[in-house]
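=== Structure Prediction Worksheet ===
Name of assembly: unnamed complex
Input type: mixed (protein and possibly other molecules)
Chain count: two
Listed entries:
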Amino acid sequence: MTAKALVVLSGGQDSTTCLYWAIREFGAENVSSVTFDYGQRHRIELDCVRELSALTGIENRVLPIDTFAAIGGDALTDSKIAVCGEVTEKTGLPNTFVAGRNVIFLSYAAAFAYQRGIDNIVTGVAQTDYSGYPDCREETIKALEKTLNLGMDSEFKIHTPLMHLSKRETVELADKLGAMPAMAMTHTCYNGQRPPCGACPSCELRARGFAEAGIEDPLLTAS
Amino acid sequence: MTAKALVVLSGGQDSTTCLYWAIREFGAENVSSVTFDYGQRHRIELDCVRELSALTGIENRVLPIDTFAAIGGDALTDSKIAVCGEVTEKTGLPNTFVAGRNVIFLSYAAAFAYQRGIDNIVTGVAQTDYSGYPDCREETIKALEKTLNLGMDSEFKIHTPLMHLSKRETVELADKLGAMPAMAMTHTCYNGQRPPCGACPSCELRARGFAEAGIEDPLLTAS
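=== Predicted Assembly ===
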């Protein structure tokens, strides 16, 4: 049986790099993606996902999540723990903030994968740049993988190709994978602007990664 | 600091027993409950929860989940794994079936508990009667507890007071805890009937538990 993979695609730089990584590892015909519509403030993310799917030809499914907003809207005083990776770059959503959200994203991805006979799940979490976010750490992902395999009697493997990469290395990997045309379609700006504002922490982090890699960000050229 | 507890309450026999267990262990003033509205076919479950909350005076919050229906509605040919415990008794919902659903319920409960400074989560899963459901097994719950603690940098304890009890022992525990008046408000029937149909597997399982315990089911007397 051919190994199939499901990429958790947010429309950001990291998960888009993972999409190309999965295509290289498993072959385009064996890759699909899933995106969560959890009421994110920047609906542009979902536009990005559509463009990326059209560009790559990789099937995408958008799944709704109304629960985060319901939880977050109730008691939202603690910002000690935020969501991780590219999700964080784009949100700053007090009304949808939920601790451990990444655990739930990956659990849904596994439930979705289970029904389609997919064993490999790919996510763009990285502990290098986001060490403050406990649900992005390798240890958490390993524990979750075990939980999901016990809970669904399955043999999922959660792949985290960016786990130990710096932003610079992620840019270099994207370049090597031929993902640069796709980078023009990704969304990073914390303020939800396109062209990006260039001044927010997310834009700055992205810019630094491209600068350190010595590569021009196609998003800026495209804008 | 006083230990606080959150009970995952479905309106069924098992989780209602757990509600009374939590009241005994933590004190009524430290207990609250959460219920998931995931599109269950039998809306009567939510009525049961309201009645139980009124009876016990324990605060309850209903959280919506629209994701299961979206996943389940897509590809629903595999019924190898079902949800566990009392949820199973009441559903048989092809359009909302999701493998590992219990993992997601408890993850949401933890996210909700996190925001309220609650460390103890109580669930009615039991591996005795439902050994076929992998996300009810003790091993799965232990792995999930570890995952949630790593992912939220927390010290949650997931309590499963019914884990190793037979249905008879669960009835005896409910009786000992003074939960019998509440049992009249619980919902079990697979066919969603109230009074219960008495013929479906869920009704039969419940009836056997009460019969073996030598206790009259208040639900039948109340009907």
